[in-house]
């Protein structure tokens, strides 16, 4: 797939959580962005002194790839106080354009996978690529009967990005998809949509052993905080998974 350079025009935005915005763009040249779920784009801009820089954002876009790529380009943006990229995104009005390139990355579901289960582990905006993978996971459930566990680490229920969508997907596929939010600071209130039996209190790496990683049938994806990625990577290796069964992407905040 060829890497392209293109303008993105802002269509809409909303707050996903305190300090995280969901941005929807279309390509300014009118073309669709053909990508594989799990890939990312780079946004190019300049610092105040004119120095060129860029930031990477995983694509949150959900398309039915049996039909083909659509026009929307969706990303989640974490706001960093005093950050140049934060100033860029907060300063955008509807219809404004930014400069982007891509798609990049190999953090994707592979057509040749013959595993029995996916362990998807993420923190913060590290769950963004898993949102874009939902149609492919649904197809794999239908065609191969795979099971999926999504362990999602957040500090509070307010920071559970796309949590309603993941919970709805789990409700549609109760025998094949488990959504396990792990809250490190605050649990949901009784009666709230996120007060569910699969909610855990602590960090995702604490609960990984509960799901008994199986080298004979699992492929794991790790995305988000580097410390979490490293800890889960070592735990999965200790559990017998080979390095080729563990796919990683680390998110490091840049100003």
UniProtKB/TrEMBL annotation:
Source species of the chain: Lysobacter arseniciresistens ZS79
Upper lineage: Bacteria, Pseudomonadati, Pseudomonadota, Gammaproteobacteria, Lysobacterales
Pfam families per record: FAD_binding_6, NAD_binding_1
Top EC class for this record: oxidoreductase
Co-factor requirement: [2Fe-2S] cluster
Protein name: ferredoxin--NADP(+) reductase
Keyword Repeat in annotation: no
EC numbers for this chain: 1.18.1.2
InterPro entries: Cbr1-like_FAD-bd_dom, FAD-bd_FR_type, Flavoprot_Pyr_Nucl_cyt_Rdtase, FNR_bac, FNR_nucleotide-bd, MRET, OxRdtase_FAD/NAD-bd, Riboflavin_synthase-like_b-brl
Gene3D superfamilies listed in its UniProt record: Nucleotide-binding domain of ferredoxin-NADP reductase (FNR) module (3.40.50.80), Translation factors (2.40.30.10)
Substrates-to-products reaction catalysed: 2 reduced [2Fe-2S]-[ferredoxin] + NADP(+) + H(+) = 2 oxidized [2Fe-2S]-[ferredoxin] + NADPH
CDD domains: FNR1
A single GO molecular function term of this UniProt record: ferredoxin-NADP+ reductase activity
Domain FAD-binding FR-type: 3-110
Keywords: Nucleotide-binding
Assigned protein family: Belongs to the ferredoxin--NADP reductase type 1 family.
